[in-house]
Amino acid sequence: MREKQPGQAESEETSRVEHLLGVLRDLSQQEPSTGLRARLSDLSSRRLQRAADTHGTHSPWLRPIFVAALLVATGLTTGLFIHLWQREPLRAANDSRSHSAETPPSKETPTRTVSLPETPFARLPKTTDLRPKSVPIAGSHRMYLPLPYSNSAIVTGTDATIRVSMSQSELQSLGFPINTPLHDRRVVAELTLGDDGLPRAISLPLPLEVLKEKK
Amino acid sequence: MKRLFRQNRFWCFLALFGAVSYGKAQTAPTIDSDQPSTTAIAIAPPFGPAQVGIVSTGGAVFGLQEKVEVVRGQPYQAQAVTEMKQTLADGSHIVQTTTATVARDSDGRTVRIQKLSKIGPWKSSSDSSEGSSATLTSILDPVAKTHIDYTSDTKVAHVLPMPPSLPKGAVTTMANGFALSSEGPDGPVGPRVNFVYSQRAHVDSPDANNTKTEPLGAKSIEGVPVNGTRSTDTIPVGTIGNEKDIVITRETWYSPDLKLVIQSTQDDPRFGQSTYSLTNIQRDEPDETLFQVPAGYTIEKPHVLVKQLP
User: Fold this and answer.
1) Neighbouring residues of A133: CB distance < 8 A, sequence distance ≥ 6
2) A149 touches chain B (CB under 8 A)
3) Given an 8 Å threshold on Cβ–Cβ distance, is A114 in contact with B37?
4) A55 contacts in chain B (CB < 8 Å)
5) Which terminus of chain A has fewer CB atoms gathered within 10 Å of its CB, N or C?
6) What are the phi and psi torsion angles at B187 (to 5°)?
7) What angle do CA B73, B78, B83 make, to 5 degrees?
8) Dihedrals φ, ψ of B239, to 5°?
9) Is some CB atom of chain B closer than 8 A to the CB atom of A140?
């Protein structure tokens, strides 16, 4: 909507005063008094002044700044959604096919087959980056952290993995960012033991498997 | 001004939400222990702060084997003693010692049998008695091309195939400590890539420039001639918020005859000192039953997933 110019508003007020005086003249059949005319003119000028004051509080630079701020906020929000979209876990877009091990079955012992998820285990680098990493493997995420205990120089091929329940405070001390530790809850973690029997890496399958302790 | 905000209330809230959410997205990811799925499994309460409860061993959580040199014709059997020593602020120490039986036969099969009462710096809360603790046995069998592990308490053995050797021309990329390897159905890698698999890999440290290696000469340990090497890694000041350089030293005594580390010491001021040494080394052929799953065990053969590329 277009704003009224000051001169145009003033002439409209003057014509409104003349209109009111005309109505009074018609009703009373006599010319309105000079005092009444002055009073109406005074009220009209006050009304004009008030409108001008109200209009003046909206500085001409405020609206463009507000619009610009909204544009920035909208851009940030859009950027946030794109950012979150890109952080979604990698989906297993590829079809999988399984190949079972061709190991001759033992005649004396019962044999059953279970599926093995691909799991991330790595040799401990010489100087370890001990910050936990989120590793997407086969459509599932896990927090993975190399540990400094095992000596990577000892290689005999007899390493192993064990699943342990660990207190949340212990996981926190290792550097896992776990919120709100509960004393009666433990988290299942996978420990990779090196060939010297010492832990080489720890990983937390996500979502966490939380165990409640027996009382 | 008030009226302006009142008229654009929705956009104000949207802007505020965007700013707050973006700020939260920039912070480190955290795991909320109240949110994840819970399993109604009761376990024994911990005896102390540094204890773990063993849920299961090996099997479906076992990673694929990395490249291990197969040594034939050099059998041995020994006790592997690992000691972890942590020094507390008052100068006192926490020492944990684990002992395992290790062996190799003339065909290159290797085995390690260790008790699960202690796992590195942690004790097992489910069985704290060294004598009655369950044992974990790991076997690498390059003849059958399998890796076997079994635990004495569950009587379940897991038999996994060793990963296929990479064909000539296969592409290997490193990511997050993995070697992602791919090959085509006819061998060469190209547009007809057939599968990709991941396996553990030795990742060269990005700080390799800060590593120094020096020879320590030759000597004999337990009657076995060994050569010594000392490597020193330095984490420069400020890298992880450290006020001074952190120096990590490793001394390794290697037998070129047995192709085996006989003794090693690793000293990291952040985590303490760990020592590994082989004792009672016997160079006879070990009992072949050490490399077999005992009778009465259930054998599980996990599948190896091979991902099909589009």
Assistant:
1) A143, A144, A145, B176
2) yes
3) no
4) none
5) N
6) 115, -75
7) 135
8) -65, -45
9) no
Amino acid identity, position A137: I
Checking DSSP bridges between strand B122-124 and strand B51-57, what pairing results, if any? Answer: parallel
Smallest Cβ–Cβ distance between A177 and the set B30, B39, B42 belongs to B30
**How many Å apart are CA A161 and CA B297, to the nearest integer?**
19
- Here the tokens at position A207 are 């979502």
Kindly state the tokens that stand for A33: 């008094």
Q: Residue for token digits 């400590």?
A: B177
Closest CA to B96 of B61, B48, B149: B48
Residues forming beta bridges with residue B151, ordered by sequence position: B136, B156
CA nearest to B218, candidates B268, B282, B262? B262
| Cα–Cα dist B36/A189, whole Å | 14
Residue B86, token pair as written in the block: 């942590």
In this structure, chain B runs to a length of: 310
Does A160 contact B300 at a Cβ distance shorter than 8 Å? Answer: no
How far apart CA A158 and CA A155 sit, in angstroms, is 8
**Full DSSP string of A90-149:** PP--S-EEEE----PPPSSS-EEEE--------PPPSS---S-EEEEETTEEEEEEE-SS
Contact yes or no for B189/B170 (Cβ under 8 A)? yes
Q: Pick the residue from chain A with its C-alpha nearest to B161.
A: A101
Q: How is residue B11 written in tokens?
A: 């956009």
Residues of chain B contacting A123 with CB distance shorter than 8 Å: 66, 177, 200-203
Residue A110, φ and ψ in degrees, nearest 5: -70, 145
Q: Is the ipTM of this complex over 0.85?
A: no
Those residues with Cβ within 8 angstroms of residue A54's Cβ, 6 or more apart along the chain or in another chain? none
Cα-to-chain-centroid distance, residue B105 = 24
| Residue pointed to by tokens 């990779």 | A192
Query: At A97, phi and psi to the nearest 5?
Result: -140, 145
Task: Kindly provide the residue ranges of all beta strands, DSSP E only, lying in B33-88, ordered along the sequence.
Answer: 38-43, 51-57, 76-87
